[in-house]
């Protein structure tokens, strides 16, 4: 007869193995995201870098991967969303709608971020369900770009979502002044330091 303690130990092992596998998959996703991003920066046709910076490009600057910044949350869709003009780093005022909100806990604090949708971007093939989360936090202007950083998001299949700040990235205007980038609205200023994702870009010496 199998002892109950043995069954519990076996189930615990399976559970731990499942968590490990889940963590491994998350880490691989983050690494793949970073590899893809840096390959694009090396590509003459896709790179936002100025020519001299691309020529000397040795890689982007990231925080170490930390799965404490990959958090579960709840998504709430906005009823009757209305168009508004989002401020940018130039005089351009692109139209967005507030598509919804995500609620989550980070560093022991209950937080919220607004999620936006661009009517123009959603018309592009492959971007029909594309959403956008620009945000600021207490690292901006110190370790990260002062304007803020972005998270990509897709229309979720359910209210249960995951936010992985290891995947947040800098807007193109942080690399090249010719770009016009949305400025995160004040409602998306997080009262925590998000030590995850992309850090401030530091060009290699020329």
Overview of the molecule:
- The chain has 206 residues and is α+β, with helices and mostly antiparallel strands.
- It has a domain at 59-188.
- 21% of the residues lie in helices and 24% in strands.
- The protein contains two helices and seven strands.
- It has helices at 4-42, 51-55, and strands at residues 70-77, 83-85, 95-106, 109-117, 130-135, 149-154, 160-164.
- The strands form two sheets. Strands 1, 2, 3, 4 and 7 form a five-stranded antiparallel beta sheet that branches.
- Strand 3 and strand 4 form a beta hairpin.
Number of helices: 2
Query: What summary fits the major beta sheet?
Result: 5 strands, antiparallel
Oligomer: single chain
**Portion in strands:** 15-25%
Distance between the termini: 72 Å
Rg to the nearest angstrom? 20 Å
Count of DSSP strands: 7
Q: Stretches where pLDDT falls below 50 for ≥5 residues?
A: 4-19
Mean of pLDDT: 89
Run of helices and strands: HHEEEEEEE
Classification by helices and strands: alpha+beta
Helix content: 10-25%
- Molecular shape: globular
List the helices and strands and how they pair.
Elements (H helix, E strand, L loop, with lengths): L3 H39 L8 H5 L14 E8 L5 E3 L9 E12 L2 E9 L12 E6 L13 E6 L5 E5 L42
Antiparallel strand pairs: 1-3, 1-7, 2-3, 3-4, 5-6
């Amino acid at each position: 007869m199998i002892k109950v303690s043995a069954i519990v130990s076996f189930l615990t092992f399976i559970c731990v193995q499942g968590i490990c596998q889940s963590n491994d998959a998350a880490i691989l996703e983050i690494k793949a995201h970073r590899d893809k991003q840096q390959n694009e920066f090396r590509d003459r046709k896709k790179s936002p870098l100025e020519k001299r910076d691309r020529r000397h490009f040795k890689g982007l600057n990231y925080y170490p991967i930390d799965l404490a910044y990959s958090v579960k949350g709840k998504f709430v869709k906005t009823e009757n969303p209305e168009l508004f003009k989002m401020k940018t780093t130039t005089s351009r005022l692109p139209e967005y709608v507030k598509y919804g909100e995500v609620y989550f806990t980070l560093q022991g604090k209950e937080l919220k971020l607004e999620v936006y949708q661009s009517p123009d971007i959603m018309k592009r093939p492959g971007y029909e369900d594309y959403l956008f989360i620009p945000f600021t936090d207490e690292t901006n202007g110190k370790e990260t770009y002062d304007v803020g950083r972005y998270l990509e998001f897709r229309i979720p299949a359910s209210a249960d979502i995951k936010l992985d700040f290891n995947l947040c990235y800098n807007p193109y205007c942080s690399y090249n002044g010719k770009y016009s980038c949305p400025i995160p609205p004040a409602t998306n200023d997080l009262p925590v330091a998000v030590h995850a994702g992309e850090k401030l870009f530091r060009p290699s010496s020329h």
